[in-house]
Amino acid sequence: MRSTKIVTSFIQDDGKLLILRRSDKVKTMKGLWAGISGIIEKNEHPLTRAKIEIYEETGITEDGIRFIKAAERVRVNSPQYENHEWEIFPFLFEAKNPNIKLNWENSEYIWITVDQLKNYNTVPSLEKVLQNLL
User: Fold this and answer.
1) Per-residue pLDDT reduced to its tens digit, 23-36
2) Tell me: the pLDDT tens digits for 64-114?
3) Among 12, 33, 65, 77, who pairs with 120 as Cys (CB 3.0-4.6 Å)?
4) Residue 22, beta-bridge partner list
């Protein structure tokens, strides 16, 4: 089975979590709600990639976030590709009143409580990935 390593980060602020809606311009999971995600390149450290993705997708710089926790990686079968899985490295960060500036990968964002996540059409296993961090 082929595996792709990705990071998925959540940012919390005042008891709420930031989720992003994937734009129609991305290759996969268009229109679905997600954490801040990206493919880990070559031998890159997952935490390094997480911080890069946070900056690219939200405009929040490294000094604007505080690392809270990493969880064990989660393996998820890819619904779009046969014989393929996503190997997800989950991270939780905190930011205080961040100014969000989305790039082309996402079309909108919202701050929600953990309990509200079930009301959104998300990428596969997002709730499972989040629960490992809480």
Assistant:
1) 999 988 889 999 99
2) 999 999 999 988 876 666 777 889 999 999 999 999 999 999 999 999 999
3) 33
4) 106
Distance CA 90, CA 72 (A): 7
**Alpha carbons 127 and 90: distance in angstroms, whole number:** 11
Cβ-contact 94, 11 below 8 angstroms? yes
Tokens of 45: 């450290």
Q: List, as one string, the DSSP characters of 23-75.
A: PTTSSSSTT-EE-EEEEPPTT--HHHHHHHHHHHHH---GGG-EEEEE---EE
Encode burial over 94-119: b for 16+ CB neighbours within 10 A, e otherwise: ebeebebebeebbeebeeeebeebee
CATH number of the domain bearing residue 85: 3.90.79.10
Single-letter amino acid, residue 19: I
CA 94, CA 125: separation in Å to the nearest integer?
A: 22
What range defines the domain where residue 14 resides? 2-131
